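the two lines:
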Amino acid sequence: MAKTTSKPSAATRRSPCPVACSLDIVGDRWTLLVIRDLVFGRTRFKDFSASPEGIPTNVLSERLARLLRHQIVGQIPAHDGTKRSAYQLTEKGQALRPLLEAMCDWGLKWEPDTQALMTSEPE
Amino acid sequence: MAKTTSKPSAATRRSPCPVACSLDIVGDRWTLLVIRDLVFGRTRFKDFSASPEGIPTNVLSERLARLLRHQIVGQIPAHDGTKRSAYQLTEKGQALRPLLEAMCDWGLKWEPDTQALMTSEPE
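prediction for all of em together
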């Protein structure tokens, strides 16, 4: 198996703690924003890239590759018939919704001036 | 106000999205592991440092300072009467429990060979 497709194993993980293992995958400033965009129906690289946080394209490429590797997203043909891929959440990816909702709830309650502004379609 | 005690404002935030604002505080590989340790009753720098993931002490210092700055943890006198501080979760910090539980649940379900091994007392 090519190195780029390898997944964490007991040997590379920091511990068997499920929180630590989850953080090894989604514990950064950007990954859950891409998951958020996918939950809201965005499917294309350009859509994620257009989100207000301004994810750098090299970071986005790396995160999408990681999400594919962990089978959190899958690739599908783009609706517009171009050869570019679109992305969608797998069952494993959909299962991150409670985590995203907990993060949203906490932010709304405890960080002033936050607003859940995202809509279900790209602008 | 000293620069080190400043909090994110509308000017420094990536967006008003509550997920993005939460990730600006806890979106890294280590912070939620410190929160986990606090939930399990660990209170001292040396306890967090002894957790199996092996957080580097400079990273731990920086994360505790950030958590204090965001009023997610507070400092209390250590039980052993030394001058060193102990830490405890504030109400805002306790409110991160659902997020931690969602992360734990997802890891247990979707990442193989994870185990919720932590106990409520330091070893």
